[in-house]
Amino acid sequence: MKKGWLEGSIKRIGKLESYVRPEKVQGAIKLDSNENFALDAGFIKSVAEEAARKVDLREYPLDELDQLYSQLGQYTGIEEDCIAAGSGSDQIIELLLSTVGGKRATVFTPTFSYFVNRCELHGIKVNTVPLSRNFELATREFVRSAKNSDLVYICSPNNPTGNQFGRQQIVDIVDSLDGKLVLVDEAYVDFADYSLSRDAARRSNLIVLRTLSKAFGLAGARVGYMIANRQFAGVFRSTIQSPYPISVLSLAIASGVLARAEHVKKTIDSVRSERGRVMERLSGLNGIKTFRSDANFLFVETGMSSGVISKALGSAGIVVKQLGTVSGHRGCIRVTIGTPEMNDRFLQCVEGALS
Q: How distant is the alpha carbon of residue 11 from its chain centre?
């Protein structure tokens, strides 16, 4: 080993941009991290308490992981041997980058910054293709860049913009990139119109990433999963993934919530309805621009009113994601769709600031 190798590596890593976790503000109305507060806390608590009574934390999780695969198969309609679980989809991304990530990746911008950060950590060069001002994806330009990469990342619905790209557009991109690994991040797909899960199960170059953190209200449990063809999913489960990637308690909680998927679907419908209502109210305000969303949040441009709105939200104890200037749009924020009461507080605050 060369002298100074460790010091050089630490110096390189220290210069990288890191993913910044949101600050915890006690007593705030938390609309900055896209957690599903529309799913009643009492519901999640009762499932967790039931799970805690069932499991024995002295034992490694064995049957619990098989149970999760069975339930995920039922929920997604995908054969369970095409599914692989992880400690959040973040951990799955990490493993994929470190094993089959290659040397270069193509992404569009803006998108989920965590993926770009982790590529840089692993020494994977990133080519970026900007979305249009309306956050549309130029297929030809994107494919041209992707053909020079080993790995392609598509977040759909996209974070932070919220829009899901057309199904046929993404399928055409995947089909034109045979031999390249395409990751489609569907963290918010439960709030959208379609999933590429079935396509991933029968294609050799497509992996779909999904999670229970958003629609299923389990951000704190850290349970994610991917869907791929049977061969790759098998290699991931048996060799790439660690033997016990998820705690026995998180597995039991996840199974408990999946067993009540019909209740969760009703909450999803409520979020979609509230999303439309909040967007309509915001769209009627002068100087405010909203963009179509297929997720559980809205991307909003506040423009010249950015300062006054930010100050009003802070005074009211309402926390949103402050994005600044994005793709030429000024004073951008990302706001989670919460309960009707949370949404009303947010709307009243913005309306009051502009009155």
A: 30
* 68-89 pLDDT per residue, tens: 999 999 999 999 999 999 999 9
Number of CB atoms found within 10 A of residue 188's CB? 25
Domains in the chain, start-ordered, CATH in brackets? 22-38+262-354 (3.90.1150.10), 41-259 (3.40.640.10)
- Determine how many CB atoms are found less than 10 A away from the CB of residue 322: 15
What's the pLDDT tens digit per position in 218-265? Answer: 999 999 999 999 999 999 999 999 999 999 999 999 999 999 999 999
- The whole-angstrom separation of Cα 77 and Cα 101 is 28
Q: How far apart are CA 255 and CA 212, in angstroms?
A: 11
Tell me which DSSP letter residue 82 carries: G
Whole-angstrom CA distances from 52 to 47, 107, 245, 252 are 9, 41, 18, 8
Q: Decide: 129 and 142 in contact? Cβ < 8 Å.
A: yes
